[in-house]
Amino acid sequence: MLDVPLTLRGEYVYAPLSFLYICPVCGDVWAKAIVESNAKISRFLPRLMPCRHHSDGSFSVPGSMQIDLEPEYNALLMTLPDVVKWEFERHLDLMKV
After folding, report:
1. Pairing state between β 18-22 and 29-37
2. Which of 6, 33, 78, 92 is deepest in the core (most CB within 10 A)?
């Protein structure tokens, strides 16, 4: 299941990577971020991050697309209205628990 398909475009210091978000608990691919640079889609890097239905017991928000130690990527994500809405809803879900 793919909850949040999106395309990012931007300039990068390093070679850009597209990400597949895979839940380590259920194995679902719950999102993908296709990073496009110079009209080319970059290779995919799998990211094991819990989906919104599972928690890994850490302080991270289940289902969040934010990646630790990737501030440029996170800032680029937050320029997309669909991602802002997605992140807001995931944080609200956390408050319901």
Report:
1. antiparallel
2. 33
| CA nearest to 10, candidates 66, 74, 76 | 76
Q: Per the structure block, which two tokens stand in for 8?
A: 């990012």
Domain range list for the chain: 4-96
pLDDT below 70 — which residues of the chain? 1-16, 37-41, 56-59, 97
Amino acid in position 62: P
Which has the closest alpha carbon to 52: 63, 41, 60?
A: 63
The CB-side HSE value for 31 (13 A sphere, CA atoms) comes to: 24
Q: Largest Cα–Cα distance of the chain, in whole Å?
A: 43
Report yes or no: 61 and 38 within 8 Å, Cβ to Cβ.
no
Of 48, 80, 59, 18, nearest to 88 by C-alpha is 80
